[in-house]
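Quick check before the chapter quiz. The format below is the same one you will see on the exam, so make sure you can read both the input and the output lines.
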Amino acid sequence: RISRHDSLTDLLNRRAMEEALLSERLRHQRTGRPYSVLLVDVDHFKRVNDSFGHAIGDQVLRTTAELMKAALRQTDFLGRYGGEEFCLVFTNTELMDAALCCERIRQRIENEKFASDRGVSFSLTVSFGLCQCSAQHTTMEALLSDADRALYGAKNQGRNQVYLSVDGRLLAWAQATGLGLCGVDDLVGAL
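Here is the expected output.
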């Protein structure tokens, strides 16, 4: 029997996340209920390992996972997708509601104080790429690709932010809230 959990963080592993994504996609097709997918990357994680060692890097990943998990509902899915990357499925959640949750998580992680084994305190940031399933996402891969594009948009624009993918276009969460946008229709109209 193959394990469904990542041994370091105790989150779902990549295989279990892909199963959760497929299950959520099928539920969406049956019911039409929305869901949003998030990809998260710890910014400059290699620097943590290089500066403080892999044991501290592992602790950073565990703490980051705990901070994300504490902000979610029991119906959401959170997994370690690889290295320092995480995937999250917000069930029955539209993009703007998911983005608000992402921003809260981003702030919690940014404000967290980590410590090295030598007592050196440090903080770190994370970048988020978020997408809501829509008619254009005919496959799970297409949805993940849009979330990934949004993640790279966040990283390319300075990191430590939430980026949204809406109808194939990218928008920073801070920009969306500054425009007073409340939903996907508002976002599409503004783009």
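If your answer matched, good. The helical segments are 14-31, 45-52, 54-70, 95-111, 140-156, 173-178, 184-190.
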